[in-house]
Amino acid sequence: MKLLLSLLAVFLSLSSTSVVRAQTLAMCRDNCDDAWTSARKFCRDRYAVGSNNRKECNDAANQARASCKRGCNQSNMMMMMMMMQGTATSNPTSRPTYRPTASPTASPTANPTMDAGTSTSTPTASPTGSPTASPTASPTASPTASPTASPTASPTASPTANPTMDAGTSTGTPTASPTTNPTGAPTLCFDPKLVASNTKCEDANDGLLFSEEDQTVESCNELCHQNSACEFFSLGKVTADLDQINFFGVCIGCEGPQPSAVESGFNLYSVDDCVPTAAPTASPTTCPNPPKIADDQKCSTSNDRLFRTANNDPKTVLECNQLCYNDPDCSFFSLGEDATGDLQGVCIGCQGGTGSQDQDGFNLYAVDGDCITRTPSASPTTAFPTTSPTTNPTASPTDSPVCSVSPGFVASNQKCSSGAERAFRSQNGDPMSLEECNAMCVADSACVAFSLGENLDPSNTLYGVCIGCTMATPDSGQTGFNFYTVDETCGTEPPTASPTTSPTSGPSASPTSSPTASPTASPTAHPTASPTASPTDSPVCSV
User: Fold this and answer.
1) Is 0.85 surpassed by the pTM of this model?
2) What SS3 string covers 297-348?
3) Residue 434 has what pLDDT?
4) Which residue among 68, 125, 445, 542 sits deepest, i.e. has the most Cβ atoms within 10 Å of its Cβ?
5) Which residues of the chain have pLDDT under 50?
């Protein structure tokens, strides 16, 4: 009877331990599957579809899962053998290792780590040769990513109060002693240019140089700057699409020419090599943006439009302002600042006479002449002073000119259009008076009329703009401009090529109304005392 009871107890014990062993095996295999799922997701997020990198990554994940499950089977077999020998544990671990230890220690650790949350995910290949006598009182939350090869020979008594947080800014060769008076704050030296949105560097066989995670625009630019072959880099941006793979912070560097691989969630930049100037600017000028007229408006698609930049070549506000200023007919421009896709940064210039039209993402501006780059002359002006000062300067100049102009008013809100009908146009932001515009027209032999931006607010860059016309009637509408025919009675005659050799002592008492059409080559040697009272109609020919 006692023998039967003993056999029954053994059978019940083996049955209960078999259930535990089966549960442990299932949990182990589930952990293998979870790790495999995470590895596959990593491959899918990191590498492009169909690339060799993704295939190799997936193969490695499959092999790791198979090896993990073999380890589960081996652990299960060893557990069964231990149970049969009566040494099985009553509380097996919920997270067994992938495979048994190749060379286990002779005896278990005397004081093992009790908290599984503090164990390292990547143990060293072999234990520390000379461990410290006691553990660190306040260890770091995670081990150093790149520890030094050997400890510091003479460490400081206490750590730096405010150490450098960004490893990318540390120096490769520290100085023997710290700087006596360090600068207050370092200058930021980077300005990578955004080339295109939703575009990234190609795969490795198309010039890809590196791929790093958890990067910013600054650190990604620095990685590209340190690689002599790197000309462009793409950086993953934040995306609001929950169904889209999140590449935020993924930095990819590549060679030229400019890549064009379409990839949603990436911005493409050209690297800024950040070459500092020899000396800092004493007092840099500040250049505010041109005045904005309206949001979600653009130049209309009519004859009023002057130019449009290409898609995927984004411009800034100041760059678009410069393009408009360089065109003498351009008064307004629209920029796709908030546009999406290939319309981002598209710049459109227009005259502004026929209004604008709705366009989401585009903002309408008036051109500003204060923030432009003027084209310098090829060489500086050469000054030729007079050989001697004026012998008898004017005793007292006239207080005001005697002549006052009276151009003929033709029409308001009119001008002459660009092309053959236009003789000239003054610069925006340099207003001219009626007299100055009239004189400018007189000085141009092709100019017979002019239009002047008089009826505009002085803050408008078109205020005072003078346009010379080769025809006497306007042919184009322009708000705020008045059209005039030129008054030549007060025009300034162009100067002679050289001064008169022997000028008369005083002006003629009664000068002729206009100069002689065909004067004689030299004056008469002995002119008559007075002109003939009634000259003949034609000379008499006597033989």
Assistant:
1) no
2) EEECCCCCEEEECCCCCCCCHHHHHHHHHHCCCCCEEEECCCCCHHHCCCEE
3) 92
4) 68
5) 1, 4-5, 7, 10, 242, 383, 400, 543
Q: What are the Cα distances from residue 256, in Å, to 138, 202, 263, 270, 374? A: 49, 11, 18, 10, 32
Q: Is residue 318 within 8 Å of 365, Cβ to Cβ?
A: no
- Distances from the Cα of 32 to the Cα of 22, 99, 117, 249, angstroms: 15, 11, 19, 29
Six-digit token pair at 181? 């008076």
> What's the rounded Cα separation, in Å, for the pair 58 and 284?
55
Nearest to 471 by CA among 482, 486, 456, 459: 486
d(Cα 438, Cα 495) in Å, to the nearest integer? 18
* DSSP conformation class of 426: P
Q: Pick from 262, 268, 260, 259: which is nearest to 235 by CA?
A: 268
pLDDT at 183: 58
Q: Strand 305-308 relative to strand 261-270: parallel, antiparallel, unpaired?
A: unpaired
pLDDT recorded at residue 453 = 93
Integer Cα distance of 167 and 203 in angstroms: 28
Count CB-CB contacts under 10 A for residue 474: 23
Contacts of 376 (CB under 8 A, 6+ apart): none
Q: Which two tokens stand for residue 239?
A: 């995306």
What integer pLDDT is reported at residue 396 of this predicted model?
63
Instruction: Report yes or no: 71 and 24 within 8 Å, Cβ to Cβ.
Output: no
What pairing do the DSSP bridges indicate for beta strands 347-350 and 208-212? unpaired
